[in-house]
Amino acid sequence: MKPLNQQKATKSRHFLSRRQFLQSAAAATGAGLIILPGGVLRGADAPSKKLTVALIGVGGRGRAHFGAVKNENVVALCDVSDKALASAAQVFPDAKHYVDWRKCLDHKEVDAVICCTTDHTHAFVSNWAINRGMHVYCEKPLANCVAEARLVRANYLKNRHKIATQVGMQRHEFTNFNRVREAVLDGAVGTLQHVHVWGDRQHNKTAYLPAAGEPPTDLHYDLWIGPAPWHPYNPGYIGGCLKWNMYWDFGNWQVGDMGSHTMDLAWNAIDATLPLTATAHGDPVNPDVAPSALTMTFEHPANAWRPAIKVTWYQGTHKPTSISGIPTKPGHGALFLGDKAGLVAGFRELELFPLDEKKGMAHYTPRPEAKQLPKLGNFQEQWINACKGDLKTACDFEYSGNMIEQLLLGLVAFRTGKKIEYDGNAGRVTNSAEANALLSRKYREGWTLNG
Ligand SMILES: NC(=O)c1ccc[n+]([C@@H]2O[C@H](COP(=O)([O-])OP(=O)(O)OC[C@H]3O[C@@H](n4cnc5c(N)ncnc54)[C@H](O)[C@@H]3O)[C@@H](O)[C@H]2O)c1
Predict the structure, then answer these.
(1) How much is the pTM?
(2) How far apart are CA 440 and CA 451, in angstroms?
(3) Which one of 56, 63, 118, 383 would you pick to mutate in the ligand 1 pocket, going by the greatest count of ligand atoms within 8 A of its CB?
């Protein structure tokens, strides 16, 4: 047993909030401002080994994160639904309740935020949280338009020495992601030429829903709409992402949804950043809803280990059953096509198809186990450990920001019906003023992305 004075010291350090620590450290140095190197508050010597966490969006997918933070200090719960708050309070009875995420992010002691709200608020919550020096785990997709992806990524890059970020592409932890990357890098398909990625979900919506009475008193509908242009209440919008994510003002249908997961399978293996061009076609352009059937193709420049490649995303009824004679998988998956073979990957398995049956796969030997990439482990845990340690995660806002920027640029090409040429450094389409206007969104008065 420790002497009493040491026990006291440990206890008071344990409960010192991040802000209190900064204040006391500033007082101790006599300085108004102190600059701490990244990880100081969160490493082995941190005043508390528990993170103080705010959960924003605590119903639906939000519940999938309760287990991950059960050993942390959850101090704030935020949801526009009083019912969701009441239910989450059963698990975290000591946390303070908020209905407006802007107020929640001003909760003094919060170190880290998990955001599981509607897609049209992800970049807002993430960017505001970064502005307050908080670690962020944001559900996919990170952004709802190109400009949002760029803003959040840039803000993260400025702050990466002190915060850890992760986008909720949790399938990334499946060991198959590493096996696919190793096979592509080790030449299983020969020289990589084209990566095809698909998802077969469909929707049949054609317009925003009509007004249908007043929202229930336990739903803060004005805050649910948040920064989006106003749409009258209809219960059909509420209760899960497949109710709202096909409407442009709330989401981008499967491009942001399963697109985030399945493109990740490809993105992890191709070391791409931003494309040079984008083309797309699909359902007729509809001002209210994102297309159900869609094909988007991107041209990516060469990098250190491969030549220039194309990346194609197929969605809904556009999902092909075979590509260059190679059968695709049902549901979601990717085909890496090279000059020697095709590699078809699902989230948990891969198959190789030699293009010359006589030669077969003689050109390729899979890596021995000892040389395989290390396991990621639990995806949410990786972020929690990163917040307390080296700040490194697999799907940080740089990796995920680039990936979603590519996909969202494809929707700009879809809406203009043109092949667009993109300057990824400047974030500008160089051959269409119409396309440039579609890179960003207009927000409801009173809402700002950069608060
Ligand atoms: N990683 C995954 O596998 C996965 C799976 C499902 C959903 N998701 C993502 O999670 C997010 C939520 O999806 P869902 O199906 O749970 O949706 P949902 O409509 O059920 O919303 C989740 C919760 O967030 C609350 N909420 C909505 N807007 C809010 C706001 N502005 N402020 C505070 N709370 C708000 C809702 O009331 C609800 O309790 C989506 O972005 C979706 O893409 C990810």
Answers:
(1) 0.91
(2) 17
(3) 118
